[in-house]
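Our consortium's second objective concerns turning raw sequence data into structural hypotheses that experimental partners can test. To show how far this objective has progressed, the report includes one record in full. It was chosen at random from the queue rather than selected for favorable results. The single chain below, 219 residues long, was entered without modification.
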Amino acid sequence: MSRDLVFIKDKEVVTDSLTIAEVFNKHHKHVLRDIESLECSEEFSRTNFGLSNYESRGKEYPMYYISQDGFSFLVMGYTGKIAAQFKEKYITEFRRMEKKLNEPRVLSEKEQLIASMELSLKSSKELSEVKHKVSSLEERFDNELTLNHGQATAVNHSVKKRIERLYDDGVMGPLETKRQMYSNIHSNLRRAFQAPTYREIKRLDFDDAVAWIEAWRPM
């Protein structure tokens, strides 16, 4: 079997006419004929059979995306032991994919904050005002995030690397010891990025902070 029996498209669990043709060992044109000759309502057909196309050898051909209800309606007339086995597999796969689609996704820290604020603003009558507030909160959240553990470690490593290089090259300015150099660079770094400690530098300033460290010289 070269295809998944069912898959997710536009947040819906579906199969398609090409897959059904392959699974039930039918010519695709015959599956298309079966779909187009179904004695169902126009609304049911429109809801459960989505006409599309696929490309083969540089040409486009028609196909259908099919919902679980559409699949059940279409293949109810397919008989035989093999057909019954594949019907069971399809039903199992539809249920499995529906469960997977509905599983809750773990939100990131940022998404949790935005979701929480959106919920608190839900009762607002002015949708434009809600969107503006959410956008402002998202921008504020981005601007207030401080360095994560990996970035803080990288900044600290950059400081050590810069001091050791300057010290080995004898570039110490008015400073007399390596310890004074460390104290001076940290003091200058905190002042440059308006942070109480290097760990509280804003996350969006990480690249600038690393570049600043690489260019620092004792004065």
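The partners drew two points from this record. The chain has a mean pLDDT of 84. The radius of gyration is 31 Å. Both points have been shared with the crystallography group to help prioritize constructs.
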